[in-house]
Amino acid sequence: MDVLERIAIARKEQVSDVHVDAAGRVSVRSQNALAFTDETVTPAEVEAFVEKILDDTSRGELARAGATLVVRAFAEIGRVRVQPYLSAGVLCLHARLLYENIDPDALGIPADILELAEAESGLLLITGPQRAGKSTTSAAIVQAMNRFGISRHIVTIDERTEYVHEPDRCLITPIEVGPQRDAPTHAAAVRAALARDTQVIVFGEMRFEPETAKAVVAALQAGLLVIANCHATPAPSGIERLLDAVPIADREQARSIVAHDFLAAAGVRLLPSTTGGVVLATELLMGAPNVTQTIRDGDTFLLAPMLDNPPNRSLHTSIEELLLDHRIDQSDARRALSRVGT
Q1: pTM
Q2: Number of domains observed in the structure of the chain
Q3: Mean pLDDT of the 32-51 span
Q4: Which of 174, 173, 165, 160 is nearest to 141 (CA)?
Q5: Domain match, 44 and 11 both
Q6: Which pLDDT belongs to residue 14?
Q7: Are 234 and 129 in contact (CB under 8 A)?
Q8: 3-class DSSP state for residue 272?
Q9: I want to staple 49 with a disulfide (CB 3.0 to 4.6 A). Which of 3, 121, 233, 318 is the partner?
Q10: Phi, psi torsion values for 163, nearest 5 degrees
C-alpha cells in the first residue's frame, strides 16, 4: 500500500491525520486519539510520494531546513496538508486531511460565535492549542459569511492555504506567506490586503511578533473585521499576547484601539463525539463594556475570571453542557475538564 492509498483510506474513515515515521510505521489520529495501524510503507514509497507533491521552492526548503509544508488537492480525496520532514536522516511525513464542507451544527459551533461574522469591523480571536479546531472554526465562519452574509472582499493569510472557498456572496483572496510566496511576511501580507479594497482579514495563524501585531492594529484602525487564529489558553490570554507583541512605544495607543474594536475571544477544543467524529467545546469572552474597559486599563490579567459571567462562557460550562446533551461521554468529559484545571 503506497502513501496516497493510505490517505484515501483515511478520508473514507474520517481520520484527521496520517503519520509515517522513520521505520515506515503508519499511525492515524481519529476522534483526536492517535493509534498505530498494522501497515507500513517503504522509504522508496515515501520518497516517491514526496517528490510528486513538492515544487522547487519546497524541495529547497526541505533540503535546507529538514522540513517543509505544502497543501495539495487529490482526486477523490480532496485537500491535504502534508509536512515531509527528516528524522534521524530518514524522510517521514505527516498528512492532515482538510474537510472543506463544514457543518457547523454537526461540529457544534455555537450560533453566538457564527453570528460574530456579521460584524462589519472589529477583532475576533479564535484560540486554543494545536489540533483544537481553530482552523476549522474560522473556516466555518468564512463559509457562513460567503454563503449568507453581505458581499465583502475577504483576504485569508496563512503560510499555506488550507481551506479554499468558492466565491458565492464574497470575493475571497488567499495570500500565502513565506520565501517566494505571495508575501514575505505576515505583516507584508496585511499591508498588501489593506491596499486591495479588503473588508475582512482572516489569519490562519497569527504571529505574536511586533510587525504583525502593529499590522493587525492598523487593520482595525482602518475599520476592517479581523479574524485571527492563535495559540493561546485561556481565550482572554490571546488579547494579552497580542498587546505584549506591540512595541512599548506604541502599546498604549494599540490598547485603546483593540479595546474599542474587540468583538470576542473564542477558545475551542475538539472532543470525541458519542456519535462518531468530534464535537467542539467552546469558551467565549464577549466585548462587553466591562471587558473593553479592562483591556483599555491594561488589566488583561483580570479577563479570565470574567468567563464565568454571562453572556460569556467558560470551557468548563461548555463541556458540562455537551455532557448533559449526550454529545460526549463521561470519561471524555472528565479528561477534558482535568486538562482545563477544573
Answers
A1: 0.87
A2: 2
A3: 93
A4: 165
A5: yes
A6: 83
A7: no
A8: strand
A9: 3
A10: -110, 125
